[in-house]
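Form 12-C: Joint structure prediction
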Amino acid sequence: EDQVTQSPEALRLQEGESSSLNCSYTVSGLRGLFWYRQDPGKGPEFLFTLYSAGEEKEKERLKATLTKKESFLHITAPKPEDSATYLCAVVGKTSGSRLTFGEGTQLTVNP
Amino acid sequence: DAMVIQNPRYQVTQFGKPVTLSCSQTLNHNVMYWYQQKSSQAPKLLFHYYDKDFNNEADTPDNFQSRRPNTSFCFLDIRSPGLGDTAMYLCATSRDTSEKLFFGSGTQLSVL
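Section 2 - Result
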């Protein structure tokens, strides 16, 4: 059974204070690891897909990296508008079409 | 341009009173999903359609049903809602299985 654990559960940063969110996963044959951003009362918004260890993707202040056991979402010089819950999800070769989500990291960036 | 649209945004129903949530998409995606997300929890897959093929998760209660009359629309029917069914219900689509999901804004259901 696929498993995803995200840490920390909650993170408070000052504006401009860079940090990283962690997603540890166990999956039988990774087909893809996904990062989503979710604002309160809204559906998740797609950020990145990573497929293989060593892969990196960037978008504005966000950079996602992947190893064989975990993924990191690095946030450089965050702004208050980056405040949201960040969800990680994986799909494995035996998962069918089922994405397994972690419970997310709730990020708050104070001005 | 909204691509996955869910209605209504908020729904209040009484214990045991049937309710239907709707989802439409303009992406022409093959796969449509329904997820349940309770407060501060991960989204939980209830079922999905690949075209007209329905795929139910083993632990989805029988109380939850779904219909997909055409490519664009999908409905979630809760036959006899219980208090524990209070949650955000998320519809999502993808071009194919294992590809990235596009989510709607969700329907927040409250069962009183």
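Section 3 - Comments
The two ends of chain B are 34 Å apart (CA to CA). The longest strand of chain B covers residues 87-94.
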